[in-house]
Amino acid sequence: MTAKQFTLDNVLPDYPTFDEGIRRAPDRGFCLTPAQTRVALQNALRYIPTELHAQLAPEFLEELKTRGKIYGYRFRPQGNLKAGPIDSYKGKCLEGKAMQVMIHNNLAHEVALYPYELVTYGETGQVCQNWMQYRLLIKYLEELTQDQTLVVESGHPLGLFASNPRAPRVILTNSMMIGIYDNIKDWEVAAQMGVANYGQMTAGGWMYIGPQGVVHGTFNTILNAGRQQLHIPAGANLGGYLFVSSGLGGMSGAQPKAAKIAGAASITAEVDSSRIQTRHEQGWVDVVAETPAEAVRLAQEAQKKKEALSVAYHGNIVDLLHYCLKENVHIDLLSDQTSCHVAYEGGYCPVQLTFEERTRLLAEDREQFNRLVDEGLRIHFQAVKDLVARGTYFFDYGNAFMKACFDAGVQEISRNGVDDKDGFIWPSYVEDIMGPELFDYGYGPFRWVCLSHKHEDLLKTDKAAMECIDPNRREQDRDNYNWIRDAEKNQMVVGTEARILYQDAEGRLKIALKFNDMVRKGEIGPVMLGRDHHDVSGTDSPFRETANIKDGSNVMADMAVQCFAGNCARGMSLVALHNGGGVGIGKAINGGFGMVLDGSERVDEILKDAMTWDVMGGVARRSWARNKNAMSTAQEFNQTHAQGYHITIPYLVDDALLDEVLK
Ligand SMILES: NC(=O)c1ccc[n+]([C@@H]2O[C@H](COP(=O)([O-])OP(=O)(O)OC[C@H]3O[C@@H](n4cnc5c(N)ncnc54)[C@H](O)[C@@H]3O)[C@@H](O)[C@H]2O)c1
Q: pTM for this structure?
C-alpha cells in the first residue's frame, strides 16, 4: 500500500482578487538579512511542489519585501471563508470536521480583523502563518481519524501521529520561543522567516467567537468596578455614570456593548473609521461623534436621563482626554484598549499622527514611528494621571497599557520605581476586580459553539445552561444567570452560533454534561466547548491574568504549562499553548482547549476529569499564593471532592511574628 501524500496540488491557483472594503494588515517593514531572506524563501517554498518554484520564488520575495511576511496569498481560496454547518465539511471523524468549522469562523470576513492575512483579532493574532499552512491543515483535518493526533507548531501542520480515541485530536503550540530569544525583535525575525506564529489567544487556538467572547468579561469588569469604586448596590446598574475607553477593534469593540448592557453612558475613541463603521452597523455603537465636544454632549445627555448610550468618538483617545481635562468633564470609569501589546507594530496610534500617517510611517520609517509611540504614550500617561487626580477610577484592561508606558520611559508608573516586577501604580482589572471576584472562585469565560449552525440549537443550549445555574448561590451566579437569560435579547452572535458564559468549575461541568446528554438524545447537534485562554488556569501573565498573584510566582509559567499538559493527558479534543497573547511576546504563556461533544460516554468521562482539572488547577495555584477567595474555594473543594482530589492548602503566618523576626 502506498502512503497517502499530504501536499499542495502542483497546479498553481489563480492569483486571488481582494474584495474592496475588507481591512488589510499594514506592512510592518522588512527586517531580514540577505542570508535570512534566502532561508525565508526556502521555508515558504518547502510547502510547494518543485515545478512551481520558479514562478513562486519571486512572488514570495515580493510579498516579504512589501508586506513584511510571506502570506502566500495565491493559496487563499476565493471569497468569504465563513463557517458552515458541520455536516457540510469533509472528514473521517467529528473532531476533524469541528476544527474546520472553528478555523473558518476565525477567518470569516465579518469576524476576522484582517481576513486576507489570517489575522483574527488583536492586530497580529493569526490562525496560522500563511495560506499554504491553511490548505495543508484542512487536508489533514479531512483525513484525521479518532486514532490519530494532528500536531501543529506555529501554524505548521507537522503531521498526523498515531494515538487513541482518548487522546487529543489536535495539539497545537504557537511561538514558544527559547528564553534568550524570547523578545519581540527576535520574534519578528522568526515570524518573517516563517517559523513563528503569533496566536494571540483564541486566534491561534481556533476558539475565537467574535467580540461576544469578551463582552461578558467586559460587562463583569465594568459592573464590578462600579460596585467597588462607585458603590453601586447589588442589583442596580451604571445608569448616570460615564465610562470612557478606546479601541473598537476585534476585542475592544466589545466595550460599548458591555457598557450599554451594564446601563452606562460610554464614549469609546477609535482612530480608524472603518472599525467604527463595523460596530455602528452591527448596532454595538449607538451614535458616532466627530469631535470630543459632540461625544461628551451626547454622553452627558444620556447620563442626565440615566439612560444607557454608547458613543463612538472618531479620533485619538488622548485628544478626548485632553478635552475632558480642559472642560472639567468628570469621567467615572476610565480604561484603554488600544493594542498596546504590539504598540510598535501599529497597535497604538500616537496622538501626534492621524491614522493614515501612522500607517504610512509604520511602513516607511519604523524608528521614527517608535519614537512617536513612546512620546505619545508619555502624553497619554500624563492625561490619565491628571484625570485620576480629579477622582477618575482608571484600570488597565489587559492590553499592557501600563507596561507600554513603562517601556516608553515613564518610570513613575512602576510601583517600586525601578522595574515592573511589583506591578504598576494603577490597578490592572485582574488585580482589583476579575482576580479576586472571579478567577479566585474559578469563574472564567466558558463558551460553546453549536456546530450544526442552527440558531434553535443555540436557544436550546441557552435555556439548558440557565437551568444549571442557581442564581441565589453567589452574586456572581446571579450576574451569570441574568447574562444568559438576556443573551438572545442582546443579539451578540457575530459569525457562527456561539455563546459565552462565565462559570466556575462546578457550573462548567454541569453544563458540559447536560449538553452532551442533549446531543446523545438528538435534541441538538454536536457542540464544541471551549474557553478563552484569559482564564483562571490557562494563562500565566504578570501584567494580566496573574496580576493578583503576590507570592513572587507571578514570574513563573508553571500553571499555564501544567494546565495544557493536564488537558492533553485527560483527552480534550484540541489543546493549545502559546507565547504572548494579549500582552505581547515574552510577557505571557497562555493555553486553551476545545472539546467536541458527540453525545458519547467517552466524552462524559473526559469531561468529568478534564473540565474539573482545567479550572481547579488554577484555583489551587491561586490558593497556594494565599489569595483569600481561592483559599476558601479550595478548602470547600477538598470537602466536596474528597474522592480522588486533594489541594494543598497554605498555612498563613502572623504578620506580627514576621515584624518581630525581621526587626
Ligand atoms: N482584558 C481582556 O479581556 C482583553 C480581551 C481582549 C483584548 N485585550 C487587549 O486589548 C487590546 C485590543 O484588542 P483588540 O482585539 O480590540 O485589538 P485591535 O487591534 O483589533 O483593536 C484596537 C483598536 O485601537 C485603535 N487605536 C489604536 N490606537 C488608538 C488611539 N491612540 N486612540 C484611539 N484608538 C486607537 C485601533 O485603531 C484599533 O481599532 C489588545 O492589547 C488585547 O490584547 C484585552
A: 0.90
